[in-house]
Amino acid sequence: MSTLPEWIAHPALRPTWERVATRLEQAGLVPEGSVRVRLASREERQAAGDLLGRTITREAVSVDLAALDRRLHERSGVGGLHAVLVRLGIGLEDRPAARAAKTESRQRPLSIAAAAIDAPWVPDWVAGLRRSGLLTNRDNAESIARNAALVLDDLTRRERRSQSRVELGARLLGDAHALDRDRLLHQVVIRGLAAAAGVPVPMGGRSREALWARFGVDPDLLSRTCLLWGLRLASDSPVAARLDAAAEAGDPVHVTEWDLRRTPRLIPAPDTRILVCENPRVIEGLAENGVAGWAAVCTSGQPNLVVDKVLDHLARSDVELRYHGDFDWPGVAIANRAVERYGVIPWRMSVDDYTRAVRAEGLALGEAVVEPIWDLELGAAMRSRDRVVHEESVLSELVDALANEP
């Protein structure tokens, strides 16, 4: 391999060659255009003059890449500009081609997703994925896009039937955990479900599960439960028998999505009166005191999907539903939702009940105010006192009131 001549390989030319290489990369490795090169010393000016074949006296010079390429072809003995830079050990990249390849790589998973499903909501889904960058620079992006499209096509085209995400993942993808919440596929599918439903992408865990449920998919059949006490059903089923046995023994009992699948509808026994409470301690208090004539459903804080389904069943029955919860802003939000969605009647949750129970040493309510829709005076009193009253602190009064009610 021949040695490059001094007028090409002079050490003082290194900054010049690096600037020329950068411009060549920007031009897609085509020697065209020009680049301005600063020459910091007399030695650099002399070397640049030898390279370009002219005298340079200023501290900067404009290098025409096409002219330099012709000169090197004629005199270098190794070829044009590209060949000389390679011989000098300067790596070159076709930057426009690299950008195009990167753009194509980013676009390919989105194109796969867009082509896989023929539905009016798909463009919104794909546009959201593009904005989110979820599939950008991921080695498995194309596989994720294909799997997401497969799941979404199944959920939006098939007749809806109840199934768990475990069942869905195993049936369609051969992986029972493919749609777990910590998987990227879960996030991509959620965005598709939101687009299909015409709703914003849910941010919270509960709202995501509600969106899955809208398409007949539950997280699993056992992990979410609803705590009951004293509820008897007007039906003949294994679940009804288990609830009846628990009620006879005075024991609290949990029901799951599995139970609800086996019981098409929860129809309470005639003349059932039901208290819906927020805290499990209330269920304990009722069980410990053996309060007769009542059943209870506990939301255990913010209701999960199983609790929602139980309350929905009961709300469609001819049964009295009373509600009691915490006097704090989250508790008011839960009560508001229960009033609006299930028609529950707030019980012992008036402004008078609050003012009798509130204590100066109680916890502060905080600033996230939620107005109680059933009693605006209660909201004003809570803001004025700025103190929480937890349901457990009035448990004895609740138990006595229920026990003594005809």
Automatic annotation (TrEMBL):
Q: Which ranges does the record mark as transmembrane?
A: none
- The highest taxon in the source lineage is Bacteria
Task: Pinpoint the Conserved hypothetical protein CHP02679 N terminus domain residues.
Answer: 32-232
Q: Which Pfam families match?
A: DUF2399, DUF3323
Q: Domain DUF2399 spans what residues?
A: 254-402
InterPro entries xref list: CHP02679 (IPR013495), CHP02679_N (IPR024466), DUF2399 (IPR024465)
- Its recorded name reads TIGR02679 family protein
Q: Native species of this protein?
A: Nocardioides acrostichi
